[in-house]
Design a protein that fits this description.
Layout lengths: L7 E8 L2 E7 L8 E7 H5 L4 E4 L9 H16 L7 E4 L14 H9 L3 E5 H6 L10 E3 L1 H10 L3 E2 L2
Parallel strand pairs: 4-5, 4-8, 5-6, 6-7
Antiparallel strand pairs: 1-2, 2-3
Helix pairs in contact: 2-3
């Protein structure tokens, strides 16, 4: 990123888990230099949750939106850093039901320790309570608590 912005940079490895990065604004000038130690401990702070409130992703074509959301969930299975939790509410609860195109990917995520939650009131509304095939049924109070406590929330 520093190179793309036209900055000079140097990276020194201090040990197996620590690096020092120096970024300077202009070549030959020391106008602003930043030093930051990067450790694997900092990576732990990158924990995140995903919230899904619809069975499509983005605006426009619903058919394309369904395909995009399916690809998004599949792509989660391929990430080096998996989310801690995935929360489904409103129309998103369709994805945890027995006829979901994403069910297999969600089961893979669950098998890898990802906590999956579905809003019980939403399942009831869509008559899907008996068709929930992955995760745990929860309530809005618990959903609010999980979202409130998370440092990062991703919403596709």
């Amino acid at each position: 990123m520093a190179g793309q912005l036209g900055y000079d940079y140097q990276v020194e490895q201090n040990d197996a888990q620590s690096f020092t990065v120096r970024i300077s604004k202009k070549k030959g000038e020391v106008a602003s230099i930043y030093e930051q130690e990067l450790t694997r401990e900092n990576d732990i702070e990158d924990n995140y949750i995903v919230v899904v409130d619809t069975n499509t992703m983005g605006q426009g074509s619903k058919e394309l939106g369904k395909q995009l959301l399916k690809m998004f969930i599949y792509s989660l299975t391929e990430q080096p850093d998996l989310p801690e939790k995935i929360i489904f509410y409103n129309g998103g609860v369709h994805l945890v039901s027995d006829n979901s195109d994403s069910l297999e990917d969600l089961q893979i995520l669950a098998e890898n320790g990802i906590e999956i939650y579905a809003c019980g009131a939403c399942l009831n509304y869509y008559n899907l309570s008996e068709k929930c095939k992955v995760g745990e049924v929860t309530n809005m109070y618990h959903i609010v608590e999980m979202m409130r406590q998370s440092k990062k929330i991703i919403k596709p």
